[in-house]
């Protein structure tokens, strides 16, 4: 905006014949606009990247088995107790079963769609 006002003031002075044409003292408006749009494009890319990262983080926390209700018991030497290990494995098996069921349902729906809507 400052460059535009400077250019406008120089143009008014030239139009009023108060000043000769001296464009070296005022930066070019088109270069400043190009720089501004370049920064806008960079900002858009960064915002899209941030949006995708946030979406990925939300999906990963939703679909990753995290044992919120299970308190991991540890030995004094830092090793996980067998009971906690069994709980972890059961949680992972439950998650794998859910994923398997989702993929199976998706395959069935695709097959139904292909039979009802042949290509």
TrEMBL record:
Q: What is its main location?
A: nucleus
* One BP term from GO: regulation of transcription by RNA polymerase II
Pfam families linked to this entry = Med29
Origin superkingdom: Eukaryota
Q: Quote the cellular component terms of the Gene Ontology held in the record.
A: mediator complex
**GO MF annotation: an example:** transcription coregulator activity
The record, for InterPro entries, names: Mediator_Med29_met
Keyword Plastid attached: no
Q: Where in the cell is it found?
A: Nucleus
Alphabetically sorted, this entry's keywords are: Nucleus, Transcription, Transcription regulation
Please give the family membership noted in the entry: Belongs to the Mediator complex subunit 29 family.
Annotated protein name in UniProt:
Mediator of RNA polymerase II transcription subunit 29
Per the UniProt record, the source organism is: Ciona savignyi
């Amino acid at each position: 905006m400052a460059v535009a006002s400077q250019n406008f003031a120089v143009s008014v002075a030239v139009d009023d014949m108060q000043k000769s044409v001296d464009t070296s003292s005022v930066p070019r408006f088109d270069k400043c606009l190009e720089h501004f749009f370049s920064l806008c494009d960079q900002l858009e890319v960064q915002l899209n990247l941030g949006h995708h990262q946030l979406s990925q983080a939300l999906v990963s926390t939703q679909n990753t088995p995290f044992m919120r209700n299970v308190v991991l018991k540890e030995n004094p030497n830092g090793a996980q107790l067998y009971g906690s290990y069994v709980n972890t494995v059961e949680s992972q098996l439950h998650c794998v079963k859910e994923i398997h069921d989702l993929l199976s349902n998706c395959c069935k729906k695709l097959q139904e769609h292909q039979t009802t809507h042949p290509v």
